[in-house]
What does this fold into?
Amino acid sequence: MLFFGLFIAFGLSAIPVMVMLVVRAQVKAGNQDVPAIAAVTRRQNVIIWSLWALIVAGLCVAIPAMTMSGAFE
It folds into this structure.
């Protein structure tokens, strides 16, 4: 369970890094004037929190199913 928890923590911590890398690469490429990129730049935290919420919701379904099938034994 400890390694599974560390794996989940690593996965969740990688999401902000990926979102910020993509946004910074788009801004560096000169696309900050594109309305979609400007909106994404302003709403990075919303994107990160919504992705975290989706992953946690999936884990709320997956972990009990894994436990019932004997994955942690």
About this structure: The helical segments are 2-28, 35-42, 44-69. The chain has one domain: 2-69. The chain has three helices and no strands.
